[in-house]
Design goal:
heterodimer; A: 180 residues; alpha+beta; 5 strands; 43% helix; globular; B: 548 residues; two-stranded antiparallel ribbon; 16 helices; 17 strands
Chain lengths: 180, 548
């Protein structure tokens, strides 16, 4: 009996450790981009604008800049913010899920690493959605489908220009009315 | 009288006493009645030589020479004037006047445009008089106003009349106020040097990769030495200049320097080298690391670790210039151009295609300070990528170090029969210039005639590359390249011969022995542990007897 209990406890500890170590990689996804940081951002922005379903660009942020201001040399990072009131509206309307505004607007991060390659980082919205009930899960399924299209590039098309936000603080844009 | 009123009066009296004590008259000093100290020893605005109206640059130079009567002669002995360097080892004539690069390719036959960056006036063609002192341009290096501009097409003269630039753009450049500029001269600032060196090859940041306008007022993250709020070095702080001879040329580089630091003021034959101030054992802070880090200095240039990426800003730098697509017109047969996502030039019918990027990891090579250049007329092998300049050096040379380079790649015109790179007359508004007539044969014919070289009448495009040592944009020390970026498989120094890198390089025998020991140790642990488990699990003999 003692052996059985020890076995269960060890198994539980092992499982928790494995989950703790790997959960991060499930929550976020990373892929390589064949383009420069700016071109990757511009192509994603173009895809967002063409996506329909209420998607609109919400802002473009430069998280590395405040770090540079402290005298630290840092590789470039650009964060695209996009929002669709069609998807955010029902979540924000429900008191039980309104706290998920923390995850809004949707962010796609484009950055260079010290290997010289450019990467795109996204949140695994599908998995996260599953933790918060059927409404969020269903909404996130749609978001995931659209996000997949944001990251499909046609290299035969010329590089579009970067869309710079009107205000450097981010914000503005068509989705603002939707409550993002 | 209330207590608080008494307290207020007491406080007021004490304040008056204290302030009157502070305001006590200080004994006048000898300097009180003197004017405030100026930055330099001469206020040029007070010199009568500079108080007359100047219509041209040479007129200003004549006025300068009335006091600085050796200055022009000194300048005329420098590369900034001759655009020529003789390689002491080979006798080969180098410099912008003699080499072909893979950006704009050549100054020959294009002087009207290129000489916007010459420290002189009126170099239209090969008839330019290099001995005429009033043709020396003092102001390009000594202007403090930031208004002194020289444009392509004027053979080195500044803007004398308001003019549209670029032609047809609707943007105008104002005429330079030569009097104002002449009366406010200063020692060269980063802006002065940058007015040419930041714009090499026709656009901000194009050529070098570690020089662009972000260095006019840089932050510490971009360059610890030039940090505008910190050390605030100007270019000439490192490029120590004597008699107008600026040290630290790309043509005469110091790849390594050994020994202690010889700070400014002491004689140093390599004043622009990092070690001149930092010595060849520069790491002191961390006693655990300093020995290891200092042991790297006999193999690595300082720049290799301390410039982790170049073009570390949104300006970026040009990676590729492909001339083979130049003269491509739109569907209506008209010139067209477009930019990349970051707003940098990507194509122009005049010049072909470009590729740009920022935050680039250098390519690394052994370098002993010598560079073998292709000059006008040299033979090439078009079956391989033509190295227009090849840095020399190997692991066996004590003076060689592993250096970071920007490698600029391109395609440019060559003669498939005579096997040499072609001189193309690109600039100017005449009918033989490529940027005017979009006709390669006409432009090549004109260029080769000016150069005095034969041309078979045929042309094609060959892949070329040029290597540019990276030495500016030094990052703060905590942002230097980390150990693991080299000491790993596929690390930054992959392919560098003659150096054994732990973490990257392998010795099969040592690896086999090591793993064998790990295996045997693990086996021993398993056998020992297994035996103990067996012993623990075996029922004790006494227990059985008790049960009976």
């Amino acid at each position: 009996m003692l052996k059985l209990i020890i076995g269960i406890v060890l198994g539980a500890v092992l499982s928790v450790t494995v989950i703790f170590q790997t959960a991060g990689s499930f929550m976020f996804e990373e892929r390589e981009s064949p383009f420069t940081v700016e071109e990757t951002v511009a192509r994603i922005q173009q895809n967002v604008e063409k996506a329909g379903n209420g998607w609109a660009l919400f802002g473009l942020r430069y998280p590395a800049r405040p770090v540079e201001a402290t005298g630290v040399s840092i590789l470039p990072v650009m964060a695209i913010e996009a929002c669709s009131p069609k998807y955010s509206g029902p979540i924000l309307k429900d008191d039980k899920t309104r706290f998920l505004s923390l995850l809004m607007p949707c962010k796609i991060s484009v950055y260079k690493k010290s290997d010289g390659k450019v990467y795109i980082g996204t949140m695994n919205a599908g998995l996260i959605g599953k933790f918060f009930g059927p409404l969020v899960a269903e909404t996130m399924e749609h978001v995931v489908a659209d996000q997949k299209n944001f990251l499909e590039f046609d290299p035969s098309q010329p590089a579009p220009p970067l869309i710079l936000p009107k205000a450097t603080t981010g914000g503005g844009g068509g989705a603002a009315a939707g409550g993002c | 009288m209330k207590a608080n009123t008494i307290l207020r009066i007491a406080a007021w009296i004490s304040c008056v006493l204290v302030s009157s004590a502070q305001a006590a008259p200080v004994a006048p000093t000898l300097t009180d009645k003197l004017p405030a100290v100026a930055k330099g020893t001469t206020d040029h605005s007070k010199l009568k030589e500079l108080q007359k109206p100047f219509k041209t640059g040479p007129e200003v130079t004549k006025a300068c020479l009335e006091c600085h009567n050796e200055a022009a002669n000194q300048v005329q002995h420098t590369k900034h004037w001759t655009w020529e360097v003789v390689d002491a080892a080979t006798g080969k004539k180098l410099g912008k006047k003699n080499i072909i690069n893979n950006f704009c390719t050549t100054t020959i036959s294009n002087e009207e445009d290129c000489m916007a960056c010459h420290a002189g006036y009126g170099w239209h063609d090969k008839t330019f008089d290099f001995s005429k002192q009033e043709n020396v341009d003092c102001l390009i290096c000594h202007d403090s106003t930031g208004t002194y501009r020289k444009l392509p097409g004027d053979a080195g003269h500044p803007v004398y009349e308001r003019k549209e630039f670029p032609h047809g753009s609707g943007k105008f450049v104002e005429a330079v106020d030569l009097n104002k500029v002449a009366q406010t001269v200063q020692l060269p600032s980063r802006r002065n040097c940058g007015s040419c060196h930041f714009f090499g090859a026709g656009a901000n940041g194009t050529k070098h990769g570690d020089l662009d306008t972000s260095l006019i007022e840089p932050g510490k993250h971009l360059d610890v030495h030039m940090d505008a709020k910190g050390l605030n070095f100007s270019c000439v702080t490192c490029h120590k200049t004597t008699d107008h001879q600026v040290s630290g040329s790309r043509y005469e580089m110091t790849a390594s320097r050994t020994g202690p630091a010889t700070p400014r003021g002491k004689y140093d034959e390599h004043p622009a080298a990092c070690q001149s101030c930092h010595s060849d054992k520069p790491h002191h802070e961390n006693p655990l690391l300093m020995e290891r880090l200092n042991a790297h200095t006999d193999k690595l240039a300082c720049q290799t670790c301390h410039i982790p990426e170049y073009a570390r800003n949104s300006i970026g730098t040009e990676k590729v210039w492909d001339w083979s697509t130049a003269t491509t017109m739109d569907a209506d047969g008209k010139r067209f151009a477009y930019k990349d996502s970051a707003g940098r030039r990507a194509f122009d019918s005049k010049k072909g295609n470009w590729t740009w990027d920022s935050f680039l990891i250098p390519e690394y090579r052994w370098f002993n300070g010598k560079v073998d250049f292709k000059v006008v007329g040299d033979k090439i092998d078009p079956t391989h990528v033509v190295e227009i300049n090849s840095p020399q050096g190997s692991a066996n040379e004590p003076g060689a170090r592993i250096w970071p380079f920007k490698v600029h790649r391109g395609k440019q015109a060559y003669d498939p029969e005579l096997k040499n790179l072609l001189i193309v007359h690109t600039a100017a508004e005449d009918d033989t210039a490529l940027w005017h007539n979009y006709n390669w044969p006409k432009a090549i014919k004109a260029g080769m005639e000016v150069a005095g070289l034969p041309w078979s009448g045929k042309y094609d495009f060959v892949s070329t590359e040029m290597s540019w040592p990276i030495t500016h944009m030094v990052a703060p020390k905590h942002d230097a390249v980390g150990c693991a970026q080299c000491h790993q498989n596929d690390g930054r120094l992959k392919g560098i011969a003659g150096v054994w890198l732990p973490g990257q390089d392998r010795n099969g025998l040592i690896d086999t022995l090591g793993w064998l020991m790990v295996g045997l140790a693990s086996l021993g642990v398993l056998i020992h542990g297994g035996a103990r488990v067996c012993v623990l699990c075996r029922p004790k003999k006494n227990e059985g007897k008790d049960e009976q």
